Amino acid sequence: MITFKKHSGIYTLKTSQILNISLEQAWSFFSSPVNLENITPKHMGFSITSEVDSKAYEGQIITYKVGILPGIKQNWVTEITKVKENHFFIDEQRFGPYKMWHHEHWFKEMPDGKTLMDDKISYKLPMGFLGDIAQTLFIKKQLKDIFTHRFTTLNQLFNEK
User: Fold this and answer.
1) pLDDT at 116 over 80
2) Whose CA is closest to 109, among 23, 43, 41?
3) What does the longest C-alpha to C-alpha distance in the chain come to?
């Protein structure tokens, strides 16, 4: 499930997915920055350009190259700003295509041993009303496609065994 809302010039995207793995397995997978490339659509040409540790930690800076439009790659720098092991972590864009990007990754153990994963992304676009037009014309669709791809990939990895 993917939802979008706008408030005070900020867009919020929310997704939820139940994974047929334990909380510890989910945390191990998602808190490892190298796995991000595995769940990002290939056509975006996503690649981590900095050295990264095997686990996210507060203060960690990660640099990427990512295709924001066909044929156009941009540098993107994020910082892991908060980590509570087996519960949540937050990454924030420091430099990149958005005026603001704040991504919360939440994990909750379900009674049946599965894991509920929620993502909440708050973002602001540059260029004022032109950014709002871009949101309507292609950014919303692009983000929806990215998270639909991620949902499908995670189902294949963890739910179709």
Assistant:
1) yes
2) 23
3) 46
Task: Delineate the domains of the chain, giving CATH numbers in brackets.
Answer: 2-159 (3.30.530.20)
| Cα–Cα dist 126/129, whole Å | 9
The answer for residues whose C-beta is within 8 angstroms of residue 137's C-beta and 6 or more apart is none
**Tokens found for residue 156:** 């294949």
pTM over 0.90: yes
Contact 121, 140 (CB under 8 A): no
Q: What are phi and psi of 113, to 5 degrees?
A: 90, -5
Sign for the CA dihedral angle at 123, 129, 131, 137 comes to positive
CA dist., res. 19 & res. 157, Å (int): 9
* Number of residues that make up the chain: 161
34-87 pLDDT tens trace:
999 999 999 999 999 999 988 999 999 999 999 877 778 899 999 999 999 999
Q: Facing residues of 103 across strands?
A: 91, 121
